[in-house]
Amino acid sequence: MTQLRTSIFTREELICLSDLEFDYINPYDSTARINRLVIPEFVIQGFLCLLFLLTGCWFMCLITAPLVYYHTQLYMKRKHLVDVTEIFNLLNAEKKYRMIKLAYYLILFFIVIYRLVSSSVIALLEGDDEAVDTGIL
Fold this sequence. Notes:
Layout: H1 2-21, H2 27-55, H3 58-76, H4 91-126, H5 129-133
C-alpha cells in the first residue's frame, strides 16, 4: 500500500508540472503543491526500504535502496525542493525525472504484487496451514 502511495504522490507532482506547462496554474501554487509532497514521499520510500530490510526481503531491499540513497543525497544537498524562480527553466527535466520515478514505482508495485500472489499460490498448493491459520493469506 505504501508503494502505491508513493506512485500517487509522483503522479500528483506530474499533474502539477503539466498544469504549469499549459498555464493552468501559477508557478507559486505548483511548487507549493509539489514541495508539500516531496518529504512524505522520501519518508515513505525510506520506511518501505527499512521494512524490507527488517523482514528479510533482501531482493526488494536491494531494489529500493538506490532510490533511498538518491533521495538522501538530494535532501543532504538541499536540492529536493522545486524553486519557484527556476521552475520554468527546469520544467522538462523535472517532468522527465518524475516520469522515470513513476515508472520505477509502478515496476516495484507489480513486483510486490507478483511476489504476493506467487507466495500465496505456493502456500496453498503445498498445504501450508500455518500461513492460512495466521491470516496471512
